[in-house]
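Regression test case RT-17, inverse folding.

Input:
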């Protein structure tokens, strides 16, 4: 079994996403938070029910909560869910 989503795991996931997948976070903001004007976005935290993003729109930072379609079991579930979400976002944003 994978790691439960603790604050330390949340920090690890957010650091990885912000450093390596910033475009995916902007897609989450545009598609799942319905902020189509999002210019940049960072993942602030993740928990079993959703993720908290900071989105920049026209120079203003807006905090947004994106809920998952299910409660995450662990960090592996988070990994697969985030990948599935970016695939869905790419399809609906094209």
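Golden output:
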């Amino acid at each position: 079994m994978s790691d439960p989503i603790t604050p330390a795991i949340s920090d690890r996931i957010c650091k990885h996403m912000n450093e390596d997948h910033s475009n995916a976070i902007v897609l989450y903001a545009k598609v799942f938070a319905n902020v189509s004007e999002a210019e940049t976005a960072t993942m602030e935290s993740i928990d079993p029910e959703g993720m908290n993003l900071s989105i920049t729109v026209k120079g203003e930072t807006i905090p947004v909560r994106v809920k998952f379609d299910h409660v995450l079991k662990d960090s592996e579930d988070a990994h697969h869910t985030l990948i599935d979400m970016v695939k869905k976002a790419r399809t609906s944003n094209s």
